[in-house]
Amino acid sequence: MQALDALEILDTPPEREFDMVAQLAAELLGCPIALVSLIDTQRQWFKARYGLQISDTPLEQSFCRVPVRLNNPLIVPDARADPQFRDNPLVKGDPNIRFYAGVPLRITTRPDRAPVPVGTLCAIDSQARVADPHDLRVLETLGQVLETMLAARLAEARARHLAAQYKQALVEKDRLHRQLHQAERLAQIGSWRFTLADGQVEWSPQLYAIYQLPAGSVVTVDQAFDFFPPADRMRLQDAVDETVRTGRGFDVELTMLTALQQERRVRSLGEMELQDGEPVAMFGVFKDITDRHELETALRHAADTDELTLLGSRKRCNALLDQTIARCVAEGAPLALVLVDLDHFKAVNDQCGHATGDEVLRRAGEALRAAWLAGSFAGRMGGDEFVLLLTEPELLADLPGTMRRLLTELRQDVECPGARAPIAVSGTLGAAWLAPDCADRASLLLRADQALYQAKNAVRGTAAIAGQDGTLIAR
Asked: Strand locations in 187-328, DSSP E?
């Protein structure tokens, strides 16, 4: 019933297209009656009828409800001999149905759902007859035509609803006293056009607003390009040149600096205007997408950042480690990876609670983000495990010294209510150098992990560095 309601077709006036299909079905099958029926909750209603005057019948008398229920064609050679229909008033009385053939009409209400039967195309005769496979093929073909018409009707109804919803949304925006101002800015679009022969430029008022220029100002193409930094100006110029050369439109996102020195992110689309097949101008639109761009940037940052420690997330760690390894291998630059494991962290959680444990992790994050480690990347791999990626020459020149200082920075005494003494939290470190036999993420992490466990097995709160030949050196 929901599918039928979505069509908004019940009790609508006759339409020539539907009537023609019903007439064609009757003529091709040689039947005096043909109907386009739709099955409602209490009745069957005829959108088109040929050879029958009534517009509907009670549902309990309907032949068509059977193929709709079964979602399959139905042929009744002789209704008087069929136990299912012989007592039907439409068989015993007018229109004296003997022969019936009907195919279900289906519509698709959602892309992820199977088509739903809502009615039938049927042919009726007052004389019994043997079913002809050709008759069924004719009905199915005409049924497909009707299904296309119903699909168009459904799309039209949905479009009306969308238009009504959009209109209502605009009314609500006005009533909410511009509370959606940011969303309105996101929807602002300006149009532009310039002629190839003389470079004359035309801007819409909104494009002046995006550039923060007085409406009607005279602006040349070169002046418009001057609002973009060199790299983005080149991208825009290349896109325009490519469109002029090939005729293919362009779609680019760029950063610009407005006349009032405000940085904005914009999207520009352009294509050629042709006359008699020859390019005469280029035209397009300009959209301020600053809000969307900032939101996407913030979402990417959130995905790449561990919320508690403000360090890089595990996903970010893996991606950056792969990139840095590739760069250092290509450039022959040194790289060291340090794994950090907090000691006695479980005791803090168990004895002091998770809130205190979170504070311990935050302090560890601050230590790994300290100013003296500038140029390095720190991330949280999970739980109380961290990674530090060192590429700065000053830090790598004395890696043992760097690790000793880091051990000092990671130590913290945690006071727990009711405890006899503070819990001494420390960090145990394992480091590995990028080497010819250790030049990918898995190998580097494995070697650093081996060094970490050597340090742990010795004394917690210490550090070990894996030798470049694969052996482990002393702490």
From this structure: 189-195, 201-203, 250-257, 263-275, 278-288
